[in-house]
């Protein structure tokens, strides 16, 4: 279990004394050559900063590529905007960042009965991701992994982010599109350690993962099939863990809709898809009395 505390941060504080978080997801960029959308990303980041947001959460699927050379482009844009720091931005991976679907479906991998090798590839890619963005995870030049917690101190207010990796290895029967999610039991158990409860005491807690708690959830057969390929397999276990951590919000992406809903008493916010609408983000204002307001903002 990895804990990271900030010293007191000097945030942009509104007249109503709220702290504002911005959240968006699923950029699905096509590398350095995707200049138009990279420019739009820069525009969105500028608008978020100008709106007075103290912290930005990007909940996965940065690129349609597992190449770390592509991930570095995001780091460079954040650096150009003066945002590449632990206290300003949190980034987690999505399935497109960690699973090379074309490679997994090649015969020599697809027919390999040893699922441990698939899990190993995802874990190794996760380590690469954490290495590229290590300064945003630990706040220093060291590498750590999931789960991890950021405790952000804004004067008398403390906001804590709890990050869980929900990317589930490809499998030809159980995860044929590489899009199903799964929160590893060992990660969830780590979050229930008493030291975590102590670290989060008195804080406004926000959970962050990539996969959606809710997708369609209808009786239509084709939607049910789509649900199966996209679902977070152990979503109830993740939700119960967040409830035990007294989380007020759970932020995710993956299912490309901008939406907010309630599950088990926790407000769940889907950051939608930057690739579908690069001019929209979710804004959350957190108040000293523990209340909050969430809305989607179009720039």
Q: Span between N and C termini?
A: 37 Å
DSSP summary: helix tally: 11
Strand order of the biggest β-sheet? 1-5-6-7-8-10-9
**How many discrete domains?**
1
Q: Please mark out the parts with pLDDT under 50 across 5 or more consecutive residues, or reply none.
A: none
What's the layout of helices and strands?
Blueprint: E1 2-8, E2 19-24, H1 35-50, E3 55-59, H2 68-80, E4 89-92, H3 95-98, H4 101-104, H5 107-110, H6 115-132, H7 134-137, E5 148-154, E6 157-163, H8 185-191, H9 194-200, E7 204-208, H10 221-230, H11 235-244, E8 247-252, E9 258-263, E10 266-271, E11 280-286, E12 292-298
Parallel strand pairs: 1-5, 2-3, 3-4, 6-7, 7-8, 8-10
Antiparallel strand pairs: 2-11, 5-6, 9-10, 11-12
Could you characterize the architecture of this molecule?
With 299 residues, this protein is of the alpha/beta class. The chain has a single domain, classed as Purple Acid Phosphatase, chain A, domain 2 (4-Layer Sandwich). Helices cover 32% and strands 24% of the residues. It is built from eleven helices and twelve strands. The chain has helices at 35-50, 68-80, 95-98, 101-104, 107-110, 115-132, 134-137, 185-191, 194-200, 221-230, 235-244; strands at residues 2-8, 19-24, 55-59, 89-92, 148-154, 157-163, 204-208, 247-252, 258-263, 266-271, 280-286, 292-298. Strands 1-5-6-7-8-10-9 form a seven-stranded mixed sheet, covered by helices on one side. β9 and β10 form a beta hairpin. The longest helix has 18 residues, at 115-132.
């Amino acid at each position: 279990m990895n804990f990271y505390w900030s010293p007191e941060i000097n945030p942009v504080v509104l007249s109503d004394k709220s702290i504002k978080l911005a959240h968006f997801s699923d950029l699905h960029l096509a590398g350095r050559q995707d200049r138009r959308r990279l420019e739009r990303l820069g525009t969105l980041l500028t608008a978020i900063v100008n709106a007075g947001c103290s912290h930005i959460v990007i909940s996965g699927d940065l690129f349609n590529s597992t190449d770390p050379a592509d991930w570095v482009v995001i780091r460079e844009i954040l650096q150009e905007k003066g945002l590449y720091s632990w206290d300003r931005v949190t980034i987690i991976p999505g399935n497109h960042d960690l699973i090379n679907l074309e490679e997994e479906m090649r015969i020599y991998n697809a027919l390999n009965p040893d699922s441990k090798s698939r899990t190993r590839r995802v874990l190794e890619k996760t380590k690469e991701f954490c290495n590229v963005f290590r300064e945003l995870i630990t706040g220093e030049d060291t590498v750590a992994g999931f789960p991890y917690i950021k405790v952000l101190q804004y004067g008398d207010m403390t906001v804590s982010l709890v990050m869980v990796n929900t990317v589930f290895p490809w499998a030809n029967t159980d995860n044929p599109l590489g899009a199903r999610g799964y929160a590893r039991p060992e990660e969830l158990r780590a979050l229930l350690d008493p030291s975590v409860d102590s670290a989060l005491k008195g804080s406004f807690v926000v959970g962050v993962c990539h996969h959606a708690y809710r997708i369609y959830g209808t009786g239509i057969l084709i939607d049910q099939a789509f649900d199966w390929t996209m679902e977070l397999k152990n979503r109830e276990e993740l939700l119960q863990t967040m409830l035990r951590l007294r989380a007020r919000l759970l932020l995710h992406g993956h299912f490309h809709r901008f939406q907010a809903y309630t599950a088990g008493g926790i407000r769940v916010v889907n950051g939608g898809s930057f690739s579908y609408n690069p001019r929209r983000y979710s804004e959350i204002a957190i108040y000293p009395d523990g209340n909050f307001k969430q809305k989607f903002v179009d720039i």
